[in-house]
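Worked example 2:
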Amino acid sequence: MTSHSKDLPAPLALSRRQKSVSNPAWQRRLKGLALPLLIIVVLEIIVRIGWLPSYQMPAPSEIAVTLTDLAEGALWKHIGASLIRVLLGFAIGASLALVFAAWVGLSREAEAYLEPMFAALRSIPSLAWVPLLLLWLGIDETSKIVLIAIGAFFPVYVNVVAAIRNIDRKLVEVGRIYGFSRLQLVRRILLPAALPGLFTGLRSGMSLAWMFLVAAELIAATKGLGYLLSDGRETSRPDIVLAAIIVLALLGKLSDGLLAALERRCLNWRDTFTGQGAKD
């Protein structure tokens, strides 16, 4: 134990030692795979012994075969189309959300004008926007991207406004005492303090972007994972439907994991509580 850790109270010194010997990341990933693997094995057994009809719930092995066949065919075309739509819609929606959230969070005047309207708009279900967007923008890519942008906008907006308004007022007062300009106040105090809420909003916005993507592609699309879902339903192929759902889940997990990695990189200066282990 170093001389510095000797000067610390016992709980803090213990916390630092526990953090240094925490479980490796690969062990946590293995634990995360345990439940999905158990579900796959149980479903395979239930379907094979006839407790579930295969025309309603195909065995996981059959879904794997369908995924392999799709991967050798048009699956990558559908993934590419959906991925481009999600990334464009998320980028537009999140960017606009950051602008309006900063405006509303920093100005009570802006909040008085904008917050009532945004509170009403974010309660509108995703499918309610579809007929209007189809009437205004047609069935091409624009309507799909706008719908995804709407889905990504509100989680980012709500979380960033809440993050700004939850900043400790004493931090802002200290910045004013030191003579910070408005730009310095935002860059050196408000932005670092609001980053955790910003990343929470971005991750929530990405999740909703994938949900709104399916809503858009189920109604008006000739390619994409939502179109693949619709095609599986119309041809009575539950294996295709489940294969598309699995791909959506994997892409959603991948995009969330990338944002989570960026969050850890940007917020590695925090010393926050990360939960207790099984032996704590």
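Residues 182-219 form the longest helix (38 residues). Confidence is low (pLDDT under 50) at residues 1-8, 10-22.
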